[in-house]
């Protein structure tokens, strides 16, 4: 059996001289090795029976890690027998074949056998009795932590044609899903969510520090409406050493947003070497052409510091799957006998002859066009024997363009003097994003190890659009500045940790405590007047559009008007305490508590209890119980906008383009429709699991969970159009010919599910080795309470949460997801095959008879690599090798004019297969 300890970063094979600051007294070997691993930032595996009865020597001061380890082990008889780049393996001189099976890489070392050779010894397999500090671990699945954790290694990041960190997480983690649907900004940028919850109910960290949220509020999406989560795509993927995914509620440990879990992105810190990667690919249809280049360089900073730099560039063309969604409506105004356009239905008129030759391919659903440039850095250097300085950050610039819905030439939101053949609005987002963190950490602060840090971040998103403001008549511009969204966050932390010998238990009590201050600011900058005003244009008499009431503002996404502009801020202070104790060799427990105070909604207290009990050396049970909370985002509290989306306008039964106004909850029009100030979401989370090694090298985990959320913040269903909505809008000087929605604490929900993960390695001798992984998730969401409107509003036809919104949360994502992976290594060849089966998805509509189904589908990903030299690897591969597509949408749900063919609720998108070639070099 092996004993493991892990800490902040993994030792690279070529970085044996990396330096750290140590303060370790002489003590029993198990405790000394654990303390060394945490202070050095390495993972150490050692045979536990070999460590029994031994004591490690004291180590003090700033020393190279390898020299400090040699000093620590002097007199123990333990030696370093292998380092796979992430894990140091210790063993006594007499050692059989050792395999790690961790992080997707095996390391095998055979010690010379004495002569004559004894009978072959059995393999020493690892039962992962892992001691975990927070969520920091380098195993693929940390089977013996007190909560389920997935770790995606740097090797897995490179063995994929996924162009984003977000897509890779949703591909490898069974309970993670990506939302691929929406309109406007919701269409251009995607999100990832855990355990069937919302994307903003998962906390994202970088090197253990909170990552800021995007300024964008996803409004016209589907399953991810009303969210402003951190944007994982703006973290350069080549800067990532590994990604740790904690699948458990963690508000008591990390604060707001961690209802579903935590995604912790660990950046590279290597002080030498580097890599370059170039990728080119396109879809089976020949579009979506993508070029990506990334480089990473590590260098020493002074005598014992490090500086690691990364640059990523990606250019992706859009995909277009609208060729089957032909516009069959009458596009042009009919003509009178003189050949002049007249109103539709005019007696004696005839079809415009252009109808016969018109371009009917007017819809362009698919993935957006993206130009992304990002930089990342990580640096550190000792200031003294007991203090280290560090800093890291990311800087990103992204331009995104997405097509919206076509406007026919004869539509009321077109002016034929500007667009005689109609137009498709095109939205452009210019995103400028950065986050920088500075900190110092050290020892000997009243016996505590300490970490003091501050992070400052900002995300600015400019909105532009090719469109039309029909209310301005022929004078309308065709290009608009719609405004800017800005989100800024400043977070400062003090974290203290120490081990305390209690004299009661053999292992010391681990104590962590700290405090955090966070200041958030959200700003809306109004667009140019032409993007939001109503120019009052009246079509002249005799015009086919005479008498039409033109909607004001640019079509597609309307500019932010002055009434919605403004700057909004709040601050938050919090304190936490976390203790962990191993009561016996088989049983350990942890307790955490946190207090938070927000300037805008008050106090919150959260707690967490975790425990693990080893029934047998290769079988254990674990469980957690916790409370959580998520504060309403500033975007949810203050964002206001107007757009044109598909709405069913009675007496019609199919969707048509119609203006919709999003109202902030404190707007008088929203209050007239029942809005109340937003309250924080509160959760109760239970998780129970088993971990086992039923066979050598086979690791299995099974976790069952339940998450109850009260006062869940949701976007209402589309309210109206009806008289009550028109009256409320008109009272505030807004266009009464609109529908509306706003955000509210509209429901209580319950999420129940099961996660299963298995990891196994087989050795086929001359035929190489295969690492097998199988994971599965089943999640079920249900509403336990839905807020009903007051009787007067209900009588007026107002329904806050309709069957569409209920369906989005309960059946709009797959209840079941299965992932089978096989990574076969044979000499210089590596074949990585992954099969993912997504369960059924149902898109509910206003009418049950029109509900859509996305049938279960198997997605095949394949990556083939060849190590041409020790430093150059060439690869070819495919995401969605078999070019699978979701079900098509029935004609009644394609809109008027048609804008959808493949169902965009698909969890794997609607662009089909992507095929690529990649060259990677190490130096």
What does this structure look like?
This protein is mainly beta and 923 residues long. 8% of the residues lie in helices and 46% in strands. A hairpin with a 4-residue loop joins strand 26 and strand 27. The chain starts with a strand and ends with a strand.
Which features characterize this protein?
five-stranded mixed beta sheet; globular
Task: Itemize the secondary structure elements and their pairings.
Layout: E1 2-5, E2 19-24, E3 27-28, H1 29-40, E4 43-47, H2 48-51, E5 55-56, E6 59-64, H3 65-73, E7 79-83, E8 87-91, E9 128-131, E10 149-153, H4 154-158, H5 165-172, E11 176-179, H6 185-188, E12 191-194, E13 202-206, E14 209-210, E15 240-246, H7 251-254, E16 261-267, E17 274-283, E18 290-301, E19 305-316, E20 369-382, E21 387-403, E22 426-445, E23 448-466, E24 479-500, E25 509-526, E26 566-582, E27 587-598, E28 602-616, E29 619-630, H8 634-638, E30 641-648, E31 655-663, H9 668-672, E32 681-695, E33 698-715, H10 723-730, E34 739-763, E35 769-786, H11 791-795, H12 803-810, E36 816-826, E37 829-838, E38 841-843, E39 852-854, E40 857-867, E41 872-879, E42 914-922
Parallel strand pairs: 1-9, 4-8, 13-16, 31-34
Antiparallel strand pairs: 1-4, 2-6, 3-5, 7-8, 10-15, 11-12, 13-14, 15-16, 17-18, 17-42, 18-19, 19-20, 20-21, 21-22, 22-23, 23-24, 24-25, 25-26, 26-27, 27-28, 28-29, 29-32, 30-31, 32-33, 33-34, 34-35, 35-36, 36-37, 37-40, 38-39, 40-41, 41-42
Helix pairs in contact: 1-3
